[in-house]
Write a structure and sequence with these properties.
It is a single chain. This protein is of the alpha/beta class. The protein is 21% helix and 23% strand. A seven-stranded mixed beta sheet has the order 3-1-2-4-5-6-7, with helices on one face. Helix 2 packs parallel to helix 3. The relative contact order is 0.17. Bound molecules: iron/sulfur cluster. Residues 26, 28-30, 33, 35, 38, 73-75, 106, 130-131 line the site of iron/sulfur cluster. Pfam families: Fer4_12. Its cofactor is [4Fe-4S] cluster. InterPro entries: Aldolase_TIM, NrdG, Organic_radical-activating, Radical_activat_CS, rSAM, rSAM_sf. Activation of anaerobic ribonucleoside-triphosphate reductase under anaerobic conditions by generation of an organic free radical, using S-adenosylmethionine and reduced flavodoxin as cosubstrates to produce 5'-deoxy-adenosine.
Amino acid sequence: MRYHNYYPVDIVNGPGTRCTLFVSGCVHECPGCYNKSTWRLNSGQPFTDEMADRIIDDLNDTRIKRQGITLSGGDPLHPQNVSDILALVKRIRAECAGKDIWVWTGYRLDELSDAQKDVVDLINVLVDGKFVQDLKDPALIWRGSSNQVVHHLR
Ligand code: SF4
């Protein structure tokens, strides 16, 4: 997996104070996408074990308390990202007690593959669906267009 940006302290991309990771790779090509530079799988930089360690350390940092982590992109559930995202999510569950995990994807919850569902089984919130420009509504919270759904899973 590759990624574009990592914000160790973020108050914009999800509730509370969080860590946010924007991964590379998205097949959805939504017109009006605000993050086109992340579409190519080979864009950005490699997501290394050291980067995963840093995220775990940041989530456990007691000086700046994080509510959890946001995984966005690009698409964290791109078929080529799923195994690395699953490994990261498993580590967060095992090593960062009490932290929530929010994932943004262009896939709909009802069309996920078994591998993608393995990730969804471990997260708290999935914001799903493509961005549809005609359904754009700036008043929406955590989503850009009204077709997208914020699924509070657990
Ligand atoms: S799913 Fe998200 S990142 Fe992918 S094209 Fe659509 S808006 Fe852009």
